[in-house]
C-alpha cells in the first residue's frame, strides 16, 4: 500500500489543506452518502481557504468509482449508487483527490486516500435497496430502540449501517440545544453546521439543514437547522422538523397475582409516592403528526355533518310550509274574483246607491255557486265562469253560469 500526498505552495493568507492519515474503513453494507473522510477546512466556511479552494476526483474519474468528493470542503463520501458497487470492489481501494484555486483552476495539491472494504457487520443487508428512496431515514425515528435497529441513509462507517441515538437532557417543556434525536452520524449531525455533504440531500441531516422547525428554534445566524428544541426532535420526508415530548413505550401487561401488596414499615409512604422515576402517569401518550391530522379531520367531518343536518331539516320544514300555503291559496284563489261584500262596498262609497230590486226567482244561496275561472275582464268588470246546483229553473241539476 502506497501513501501519496503532495502539497504545493498556496497563495498568501490561505491555510494548508490536510486529510487524515492512514486508510479509511467502510463496510460492504454501508448506505449512500456515508462520510469517509474530510479536509481540515470542511467545516470552516468563513476561512479564506474554504472560499478559494475547490476539490475534485483525480483518479479514478467520476462515474467510474463508488466514491466522490464535494467541491467545497473536500468531503469524501459514498455516492448514491456506491452500495451496489462496493460488493464488486477488492478489499482495498482508493481515490486520488486534488484541490485547486476556484478562480484560476491551478492545482495546489493532491492526496491519495486508501479505502478498506470490510465484511458486513451489524445485520444490515449487503447492497441494500437499488433506489435511494428505498433506504430508511434515521431522522424519522422518535424512540431509542427503533433508532438503533434501523439501517439508514448516510450512517457513519463505524456503525455498520445502523443509526445512532443522541440522548439529550429531555427537560420537559424547556427549549434546549441538547435535544434528543436519531441521527446517521452523531459526530457531524447535529453539529450546528449544514456542511457541503449534508447540503447535497435533505435526508442526510435535516437537523442541520432544515428551514422549518416546529416547537423549536433555527440557527439565528444561518436560519437553518434545529438550534434548540423541546424533548425529542424528528424530521419528515420533506425536510420539516418537529420537536416534542419523548414518546413513551407501550405499557407492559402485568401478570395476575393473588397475593396482596405489602409495604415496608420503614417506608410507609411508598404506596402514595407517585413522583418516582418508575411511575408513569396515564394519559401522557404523545399525539404525533398523523394523530393530529386524524383528530382535525374527524372534527371537520363532524362539524360538516351537523351543519348539513340542520340545513336539510330547516329547508325541508320551510318547503312543507310553502307547499301548504300554495295549496290553501289555490283552493281559495277564485274567491278573489268575486266582488266585495255589500257591507264593505257601502263603507267605501260616500254617495248613496240606488236600490236594485232582486227577482226571488233568480236568487240562490252562495253555497250553491262554485267559481271555476275568469273568462275575461275589462273596464266595466269581469266575466266569470261558475257552476250552480238546484237552480229554480233546473232543480236537482248542475248548471253552468256566466
UniProtKB/TrEMBL annotation:
Please give the name of this protein: RET cysteine rich domain-containing protein
Superkingdom of the organism of origin: Eukaryota
Q: Where is the composition biased (Low complexity)?
A: 257-274
Give the residue spans that cross the bilayer.
292-313
Domain annotation RET cysteine rich: ranges: 138-243
Give the organism, scientific name. Answer: Ranatra chinensis
Q: Which UniProt keywords apply?
A: Membrane, Transmembrane, Transmembrane helix
State the residue spans of region: Disordered.
Answer: 246-278
